[in-house]
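Reviewers of the previous submission asked for a worked example of the structure-prediction workflow described in the proposal, so we include one complete record here. The input consisted solely of the amino acid sequence. No template or homolog information was supplied to the procedure at any stage.
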Amino acid sequence: MTRLHGWFAILLVVLAGCGGGGGSECDAPRTPTPLDRASTGTITGTVTLGGAPPPTAPLRMTAECAAQHQGPVPAGDVLVHDGRVENAYVYIKDGLGERIFAVPAEPVVIDQVGCVYRPHVAAAQACQPITFKNSDSFLHNVHGTPTVSSQWNFSMGVQGSTRSVRIPKPEIPVEVRCDVHPWMRAYVAVSAHPYFAVTGADGRFVLRDVPPGDYLVASWHERFGTRETRVTLAAHDTKDLAFAYAAP
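From that input alone, the workflow returned the following structure tokens.
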């Protein structure tokens, strides 16, 4: 087994040169569409689940990884608190037209800690830096598998090391996994604009500085699928939406 792990580590070092990065698509100049913040509004809401949440098994970890935790570790695919859904990605799916938005320079950070990706569901704007960090003292690799952008696969064997990628095209979601520890899964939802949020334990989301308009707003969840609703937002308006999933 040690020999196999050694060969696998060598393979990952080779693959380290195959990382993503967005390339020239993200480096091309862009002129953001002016936004009149004196007229923008807010879209808020709640994502809920009716009925009993479906069962979810704890992660089946190797001994070195399990030793980093006090007990069983939930997979993160079904986190429901008093009917409120955590880790739902809510975003404006349609209605922004041809607007162009500035790309945030601040990275989205995804940590590898205790052989788990934290957060389990992350959100980024297209071309925004996504920084992966290894807080563990052993080898991980980060294998991203977008379908409309270039995939990446690189190793991270040094504790505290970081490496960043940029995903140039919107995609919901992009799966990220670790080939060394196959239970490690995370999702990165990528939108062309800044109007998105991932729900916390209270199931709530807030989309701020939304220009007036007619929008299709969607909620995506790893296990529960997609829900959509339309909303008309007037100047200075605030609309509260409800996305309701039904337990299978």
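Residues 1-19 have pLDDT under 50 and may be disordered. We consider this example representative of the routine output the project will generate in years two and three.
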